[in-house]
Amino acid sequence: MAKSSGELTHLSSSTVIEGIITLDNDIRIAGSIIGSVDTNGSLIVERTGKIKGEIKASAATIAGKIQGNIECDGLMILESHSSFLGDIKTRQIVINENAEFQGNCAMPISNAD
């Protein structure tokens, strides 16, 4: 993925979107999305945020609820009290205490000898 533009798209808690979101910049979600999110930047899902669909991001911090699969090029963080139902493909993952995760996680293996 390309680098983020440095801009931030913010969806407030009263926002509900159905469809496909494609962007080059970071996105912060406090509302609900039913559909896919594909960003070249970072994804931040606040505690009130919900996504039901497929996700691609360069990095992700999840504090809300996700139902779907995610492909993350870099670091993915599941914050305390977050809920993730789906499969994760990422380079690095942090699962904080009291985070809920149900699914599979795949991480590339480095060829360090």
Question: In words, what does this structure look like?
Answer:
With 113 residues, the chain is mainly β. The chain is built from no helices and 14 strands. Strands 1, 2, 3, 4, 5, 6, 7, 8, 9, 10, 11, 12, 13 and 14 form a 14-stranded parallel sheet that branches. It is globular. The model has no long low-confidence stretch (mean pLDDT 93).
What's the short story on this structure?
By secondary structure, the chain is mostly beta strands. It has strands at residues 8-11, 16-23, 26-29, 32-39, 42-45, 50-52, 55-57, 59-62, 65-67, 70-78, 83-85, 88-95, 100-102, 105-106.
Sequence-ordered SSE layout with sheet pairings:
Blueprint: E1 8-11, E2 16-23, E3 26-29, E4 32-39, E5 42-45, E6 50-52, E7 55-57, E8 59-62, E9 65-67, E10 70-78, E11 83-85, E12 88-95, E13 100-102, E14 105-106
Parallel strand pairs: 1-3, 2-4, 3-5, 4-6, 4-7, 5-8, 6-9, 7-10, 8-10, 9-11, 10-12, 11-13, 12-14
Task: Please describe the structure with a list of short key phrases separated by commas or semicolons.
113 residues, 14-stranded parallel sheet, 0% helix
